[in-house]
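Continuing the batch. This is chain 6 of the set; chains 1 through 5 are on the previous pages. Same settings as before, nothing changed between runs. Recording input and output for traceability.
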Amino acid sequence: MADLQTIPMFPLAILPLPGELVPLHIFEPRYRQLLQDAEQHDIGFGIYFNHEVNTERVGSWMKLESVLKRYPGGESDIVVRCEDVFTMHTLYRNFKSKMYPGGNVQFWNVNLQELPGARLGDLFREYMIKRNITRHEAFFSIYTIAQLINLDITDRYRFLTLDARLRESFLLQQLTWQMRLLDAELKSKDVYQWN
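Output for chain 6:
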């Protein structure tokens, strides 16, 4: 396949969604080397979703946003941003001559600016109001909605691996369910007096 690319890899049991910021604590020597390469050469890396549900072999393409803290022993707290999603074809123990893993991947080239339809957008705005979240970005993509409604790991995976035409209806279903839970929570506050 001509469109395969070999990238540095960081297998983890997390699945960042496009546009999402993720904090990581880097402590293993091989991933400290990866962080050093990311800083010095402005390279990205893949977080391969290392989980049993990942039959489609997906992962997230990450770029370093910032280093929050460096510890005397060489550990670091960093923040990375998901820029794309990929399908893993081959995972290698080492990336070229480095200590950290690598892999051959095919990028999906997701549209980070993919707008939700009117119905999903309106329901999401209502959800944000019910959650008392009034300070947020004016623009939100379909991926932002998926991040902010707190999908569990299997629902994140399902969302990403669905056909693009079905993602919006999946989010509508998830958001409708969460709205019902919020309504039930609000009603219970009216019924019970807390000491």
